Amino acid sequence: MTRYQEIAAEFYRNRLLFGTTERPAIVAVEIGARNAEIFRRVDGKLTRESAPAQFFILLGDPSLLSTLAAPHSIRELEGDFALRHLATFDTAAALDAAKRHLRKADAGGNEIPYFVLTDPVEQFLLLSGMTFFVGLEFEHLHRMQIDVQACITPGFEFPSGAREGDRIAAIAITDSRGFERVLMASEMDERAMLEQLVAIVRERDPDVIEGHNLLRFGLDYIQARARRNRVALKLGRDASLMKARSSRMQIAERTIAYRRFDIYGRSVVDTWMLAQHYDISSRALEGFGLEEIERHFKLVHPGRTYIEPERVNDFMANPAALREIALDNARQVGKLAEMLSLSYFVQAQIFPYSYQNVILRGNATKIDSLLLRAYLAQNHSVPVPGEPIAFAGGHTEVRRLGVAHAVAHCDVTSLYPSLMLQFGLGPGSDRLRVFLRMLAELRKFRVQAKGAVRELQGNERRYMEALQQTFKILVNSFYGYLGFSMGHFNDYAQAQEVTRRGRELIQHAMVELEARGAQVIEVDTDGIYFVAPPGCESESEQEKLLESLAGVLPEGIKLEIDGRYPAMFSYKMKNYVLLDETGELTIRGSGLRSRGLERFQRRFMEEMFGLLLEDRRAEIPERLESWKRRIAEHQMPIRDLMKTDTLQDSLEVYRQKISGKRRNVAAAYELALKASRPYSSGDQISYYVTGRGLKVKVSAAAKMAADYDPDHPDENVEYYQAKLDELYNKFKPYLDRPGLFDAADLVPPEERVQQELIQPETDVEKD
User: Fold this and answer.
1) Is 307 helix (H, G, I), strand (E, B) or coil?
2) In the prediction, which pLDDT does 767 show?
3) Is the pTM of this model over 0.85?
């Protein structure tokens, strides 16, 4: 047994957090009418086993099902929480009958407390205690990657499988066992390509199918083309058809609509979705296209070529180039998935979800499932969620603006979890006291895993890093659960007490740092950017500075250096730029990273910030003029000037909203209305602005980017130059003042200090 396996085995012995080892190495679970089919990978071989399915509903009153004809049994649970009866069913049909019965009773306006999980796999895993992948390592999974390239009907920019004139140009297929194949339209018709795809999936038999934008485009396109060609997409391990339904997922402040695809016995993983989750914490991705993500993770290799959707048609005359691009995409998806999905591989060993669902579910929902599993395992009743209330969040403040050098960032390691454990701030309804016990165990595991990273190498080091990152994410999610509106054990009073103590602690740390001669630049909930006092430039000296605060902080709470930067530009609260030791820039904040900016604006800002942080601010005006000359001389690629919008509404709905003055006129919709081809909601339109002068109405002057003729350029030079001037003038007050200065000089009081009002969190996937 390797050192990694020894450490991991210790974690897996914790039955409160990890699933039972009774049936290890599960790679898929499917629920039938009466039985669960369990797929396990034992010694590299796939086995299929059957077990009785377990369906249940939690009830407040057993009489709710007194007239239900479908066979069922009810037992009373211990304790007096509202959901204190467990109804169990032997068949899916009986469960469905019970759900219809309860919905009908609920429609009468009665307050009927009951709870039922919609996912039968979750029901089975939760009651059985089983989880995926226990005893497996990531490389044991059989993973397949698919990339689809599509020809587009002339007049459109983005493919749609529903259009008669669209068709598949290439399908690249790779897998983790070295298989590679590209199905080409130049070699076979579309029907044959789809039939070959089905045959390859069935023959290679992957546990996981991966792709980039697989849920919002790839599989949807394949399904639409298969329907046109009358090809049955029998991709399931039981030769069943791939199924799809509309779904949406909450990620931070955004709701993402997508098509959910289910393939019997396999998980579907979309690296576009993984990138969305990654960007919540990093806020570092410029975009979510494969090119932007590869560049961010430095996965781009020499000779790598990217192809825009509207250019696939052009490559039909060069099938060798198209083949290589599609194959490269599939290979890179495999690398990207390996980087971004390791954490979810670990989470699937903890939570009662399929691998596919553990990616789609929110962290608070996952913690709720752990609590439900623990309570039902002890035959205990469960409370209903408390009524949601808003409460004050963490302390955020910007004290100084401008450019600072030799900046350090310190944070309170796991501030909220540390406060919760130190002061016993868990849900008041948690009578079994499992919430804080889970939190303590996860934090202990995180410390052990973080320490073990240093003694491991290669894949073992990478897996242990994934473990510690997973534990870190989960540890920091326990506070969010307290304010989770759908959490059975939520507790808004305790959540408010946690944030109150957090605000007091971080404000006290700021006062103590400044009392010791440091200059605090910005604080955000649990971290502080500061310039150390003179004579405290080295990391060891800064660590001693923080150690001197130990006596004034609560026991068990400590500040640690989390990063050191040669320079920092503080723009406003939660908006700043960091220059690291390698010369790389990190840009944070919606005011600096808005995806509403065109690419040329973002590139100019990056150059400007780089010069500013390298003390070359005198060169910025000339750099501005250089960019403006490039626009005037039509040297700027239209891809850098154009803007891409997605049609959220149908054109008919757009017309109705415009006529009713419920929305403004929009360029993308106006272009779609003028187009000779029909557009529908979900289509994307890229456009640029034509004409002369600054006083231009964009909706009237917009033109399809695909219609741009570089031999006869017609972009509005003055319009785009003015956008650069606007950016420059926006930052000029900072460019004119060297060094740091008091934030009060430029920012009003309400924009310098903030205690955000936290709204109850809702983070579940919705079908």
Assistant:
1) coil
2) 44
3) yes
